Amino acid sequence: MNNASEISRALAEHAEEFCRSWLPAGRKIGNYWIVGNKHGDPGQSLAVRLNQSAGRRPGLWTDHATGEYGDLLDIIGEQLPLPTWGAVFCEARRFLGRPDIGSVQRAVAHNGNTSDSDRSLAARKLFAIGRPVQDTLAERYLRYRGIARFGPALRYHHAVYFRDETGQSRQLPALLAAITDNAGLVTGCSRTWLDPLQPRLASIAAPKRVIGNLAGHAVRFQHGSGSVDLIAGEGMETVLSIGTAFPLLPLASCLTATHLGQFMPPAHIKRLWIARDNDNAGVQAAQLLRQRSEDLGIAVFDLLPVRNDFNDDLREDGLIALRARLQAAFDNARILDLAKV
C-alpha cells in the first residue's frame, strides 16, 4: 500500500470509523457523515459518503457551502500542521493499523452495503404504499408553506421508519416523493418526516432523507410531455412555490444543490430555467448544470429569488408578487408563451 489511490481506497473501506476519529463533531445521517467543514468544525455543510451508492464509491466528500470536494486523504492533509504527502501517508497508515477497525467495518457491511438496485426497489415499494396527499398531514404541511401545486409524484404515509440519533428505529408520518429518471422509472424516494401535530417538519436530525438513486434524476411535476421548457431547482418547496404561481409549468426538484448540479435534462428540452437558492452552493450547482446543458444545445436561463429561496419569497411577499416577479423574468427572456401558462 504505497500509492495515494491504494491508501485512499483503504481509508474509504473504513469511512465511518475514519469520520468518527477525524471528524468527531459530525454525526451519521443515513449514508453520510455530516459536519461543518474539512477542518472538522460543527455544522452541516460537508457530507462524506460512507458506503457505495449510485456507483459512487465511499470516502468521497463534498462541501456544499464552498463547492470543494475530495477524499479522506485530503481531510488528513487539512488537519495536519505540516501536510506533506509523506506525513499524510504516514498518518493514514497509522490509522489503518488501528485494531478497532474490523468491528466497525463488519457493522457497516451488515447495515450499509445494499446494492443500488435493492435501494431503488425499496424506494419503489415505499412509494407504492403511500396514499394521495389530499386531506393528509402532507397537504396540511405544504399549504402552510403557501403551496397549492401537488401531483402524482407526491404521496403520504402515516408511519415511515427512520433511525434517530441513538440508532433506535422509530416511525413518524412522512411526505413521500417519487424520484424518476428521464424515462419515468422510479429510482428513489424522498422522505420528509412531519410533526404529527403541527404543520411543520418533524423535530429530528435530518427530517429530509432519500432512499435509492438520486444522481442525475429528480422529483418531477408536469402536465403532459410536450413542453420544451423545464424549471429545475433544489428543494421541493422551492419548485412547488414556482408551480403554485404557474400551475402548468413543468418542474424538476433535484432536492439538494449537489444533485441540481448533477441533473441530466431530458433530451426534448430546449430551454432550461435554473431556480437556484441564494447561497454559494446554489451558485456552484447552477454553474455545473448550465455548462452541461449548454453543451447539449439547451438554452439556459436563471431564476433568482429575492430571499434565500422561492418558498421564502412566496411566504413573505405573497403569490401575486411572486407571480409578477417570475413573469417579468420570462418576459425579459422573450419567452412570452411560457409566462402565460
A few lines on this structure:
The chain is α+β, with helices and mostly antiparallel strands. The chain contains 13 helices and 14 strands. It has two domains: 4-112, DNA Primase, Chain A (Alpha-Beta Complex), CATH 3.90.580; 117-339, 3-Layer(aba) Sandwich (Dna Topoisomerase Vi A Subunit, Chain: A, domain 2), CATH 3.40.1360.10.
Tell me how many strands there are. Answer: 14
Radius of gyration: 21 Å
Tell me about the largest β-sheet: 9 strands, mixed
**Low-confidence sequence ranges:** 98-113
| CATH arch. level architecture of the largest domain | 3-Layer(aba) Sandwich
- Number of helical regions: 13
Summing up helix and strand content along with how strands pair, one would put the structural category as: alpha+beta
State the order of secondary-structure elements, H for helix, E for strand: HHEEEEEHHHHHEEEEEEHEHEHEHHH
- The 3D shape can be described as globular
CATH topology of the largest domain: Dna Topoisomerase Vi A Subunit, Chain: A, domain 2
Distance between the termini: 60 Å
Give an overview of the whole structure.
The chain has 341 residues and is an alpha+beta fold. It is 38% helix and 21% strand. The protein has two domains: 4-112, Alpha-Beta Complex (DNA Primase, Chain A); 117-339, Dna Topoisomerase Vi A Subunit, Chain: A, domain 2 (3-Layer(aba) Sandwich), CATH 3.40.1360. It is built from 13 helices and 14 strands. The longest helix is centred in the last third of the chain and has 16 residues, at 280-295. The protein is globular. The model is unreliable at 98-113 (pLDDT under 50).
